[in-house]
Amino acid sequence: MAEHKSPALTVAMAFHKAWTGKDLDLAMSYVSDDIVCEAPPGRIEGKEQYRAFWAPFLRIFTNSEVMAGFGDDDTALLMYDAHSTLVASALTAEWFAIKEGKISQSRIIFDRVPFDPARKAAG
What is the pTM of this model? Predict the structure, then answer.
């Protein structure tokens, strides 16, 4: 992806790079203590719940390709394809609101349907 000058996109990309590198501690350094995230499993409030949301996925995550990233001073949007040992491809869109250099809000959209049968098949 090309270089970017958006402050929000810079934070979003740093967060993405950290979690895709499986460095959850570094990823959480980009997250506000009072983050609110809307994701397919439901509403997630606070940094600890947000961390608990990401941790299980990182155990099965293998890699990701960022397809697009856009941002301005306060918001960013990433679209990427996440790969895991459970599901070969999970097309994902993630919107971020940034306050004081940290992610204060996030909305994650991905198709959960392939994950359910894959989890059942994996036992």
Answer: 0.90
